[in-house]
Amino acid sequence: MDEDMSNSARRMSTRTRRVAPKMVAALASNDNRTQAVLARLEALENDNPGLETVEVNDDSDASLDDDDEQVKRQSKGTKRKTRQAKALENAKKAPRTFHELLHEANLESLPRHVPTYLRAAVGPPSSVARRHFCTVCGFSSNYTCVRCGTRFCSTRCQNIHNDTRCLKFVA
Amino acid sequence: MTVVVLDNGGGLIKAGIGGEREPLTVIPNCLARPVSSKKFLTGDQLLSPTEDLTSATVRRPFDRGYLINPDLQSTIWAHLFSTLRLTPSHSSLLLTEPLFNLPSIQRHTDELVFEEFNFKALYVADAPGLVHLYEASRRPYGLVSKSQCSLVVDCGFSFVHAAPVFQNFCVNYGVKRMDLGGKALSNYLKELISYRSINVMDESFLMDHVKEKLCFVSLDVQRDLMIARKRGNDNIFKCTYVLPDGVTYTKGFVKDPAEADRYRTLSDGATGLHTEKMETDQQEHEEKLENKNKIDLTKNEFSLTNERFLVPEMIFRPADLGMNQAGLAECIVRAVNSCHPHLQPVLYESIILTGGSTLFPRFAERLERELRPLVPDNYRVKISTQEDPILGVWRGGSLLASSPDFETMCVTKAEYEELGSFRCRKRFFH
Ligand SMILES: [Zn+2]
Ligand SMILES: [Zn+2]
After folding, report:
1. Is the domain covering B2-126+392-428 a CATH 3.30.420.40 domain?
2. Is the separation of the CB atoms in A81 and A72 below 8 Å?
3. Where is the sequence biased in composition, kind Polar residues (chain A) (predicted)?
């Protein structure tokens, strides 16, 4: 059964795999607010957030000057072809995300006293008193969007929010 | 034998030779392709003052602070070693790695080091240990050195770690991590500017520059928000950044540095400055927003006001900005509380700040103000920032690499070939 799973994972297109963690998380929660928070974290870690469609397969021209390869070739000249071939092959696959690697590491199975990545997370704040800033203009906000939970301060900012951001990241 | 010291961060690589005070180079750990080009650039090419990186596509080997793409890392290292004329096959390597690195990533790293680059030997170190080592060596009679204890707060590219160090080793069970760093701050700044004035979502390099030049930590957010609403000269936070036009300028710059520096005239901690004009300010503020909607996009500049302090604010109060995490002060308290009670007062008295994000003006002052009320009254709180928060880890590595025992601490290529990654790795942890 395990093998079935990994095979189907391999068959997934690169695009699907890239979007997968976000989708999985979003599907796991059925309310828009949770989805919006997850999408927000995802957005803040994105390397090229401006690109609507992420180019996944543009690695083929990621090669640099040839002499860079020299350093690696010096002591293993014979393996050079295979390495290049391997690199090209790997480039075809989308890089895996940290969360995929984390999932594979199965840290949950370790005993509670073992310090891990998961146990080092600082966790939510203890105080519930929060200051709220308008997500559009940054000033203090008194209103919350009923659909996604985002804060705004005025009708004007609400309109900008509705037009440009509200539920933008939610499938 | 030469020891190559590599502080291989998610944002920057600091590279040099063990025993030297300064690294040979500091480069972004990424490839970037300018819009006008089909080729990706890396290393020193990205540092060229004439290279136009406007809207460049960025690819990074790191995700959330961990190495996820060894092939990309290999490309970047190959270029780096060749430009620095380093020969891995004749050198040892001291490499930093993030706390709680995953075994699968460690295996890939070892493959890179030994199989691809053929280093003779490897030592893997964590940032808190190196920072502690460096600070202890600078003040041999100071508390950090005598107690062999410190609390290293590393505000890096992908995350913030509060890491207790005891007997010169990072105490893993005490480490607390916030999942946001310099990259999230830059992206937050992009969002704020893009929704308010001009679309800069694609401008990673430019926005890093804006953040470094113009952001600062507020000591009183409510007061500063009021000041940021003011018009004209009363708004001492307002300043203008000029975007590159691709013709006259390939890099952006602060239009009037004197204007940008006016926030420093604020008397620290004063509250309720000029609060009387609040209502008219609200109106003005709305008019201003209307003007922004009509902004001329051909005009190559934008102005900033409250963005300047709301961006670093995220480190102190992530929850206020929609991230459900404790802020930096609480992160430190939780790290200290997970250590033995005897250690706690010493840790609060030897907090060391490192990492690029601690360079925001007034960072340490703000942290102290937030931390003091959370710490028992009879404990002292002492926070010091590293002399160079970007190079601190590298310098610690350089120091360690020049110690007489260094060779014996390493795993050699022969040992790696015989024992494999997993068993070799055990040596680096006590
Ligand atoms: Zn608003
Ligand atoms: Zn909404």
Report:
1. yes
2. no
3. 1-11
Q: Is A98–B325 a contact, with Cβ atoms under 8 angstroms apart? A: no
CA of A47 to the centre of ligand 2 (A): 24
Strands B62-63 and A143-144: unpaired
Return residues 255-284 of B near A (CB < 8 Å): none
Q: Which of residues 314-353 of B touch A (CB under 8 A)?
A: 317-327, 330-331, 334
Q: Is B116 within 8 Å of chain A by CB?
A: yes
In chain B, where the domains are located: 2-126+392-428, 130-181+324-385, 182-314
Q: What percent of chain B has pLDDT over 90?
A: 69
Asked: is B182-314 a CATH 3.40.630.30 domain? The reply is: no
Q: Among partner residues B42, B81, B180, which is closest to A71 by beta-carbon distance? A: B81
The pair of three-digit structure tokens given for residue B266, joined into one six-digit string = 């604020």
Closest chain A residue by Cα to residue B62:
A98
Q: Coil, helix or strand for B64?
A: coil
Q: How far is the CA of A118 from the centre of ligand 1 (A)?
A: 36
State the ipTM, two decimals.
0.86
In CATH, which superfamily holds the domain spanning B130-181+324-385? ATPase, nucleotide binding domain (3.30.420.40)
Nearest CA in chain B to A88: B71
Q: Dump pLDDT digits (tens) for A69-96.
A: 555 544 444 444 455 455 555 555 556 8
Alpha-helical (H) ranges within chain A are 2-11, 14-28, 32-44, 66-73, 80-92, 98-105, 155-164
Partners of residue A37 in chain B, C-beta under 8 Å: 322-324
Domains B2-126+392-428 and B182-314 agree in fold: no
Q: Is B153 helix (H, G, I), strand (E, B) or coil?
A: strand
- Give CA–CA dist A48/A68, Å, rounded: 26
Element (H, E) at B129: helix B127-138
Q: What pTM, to 2 d.p., does this model score?
A: 0.82
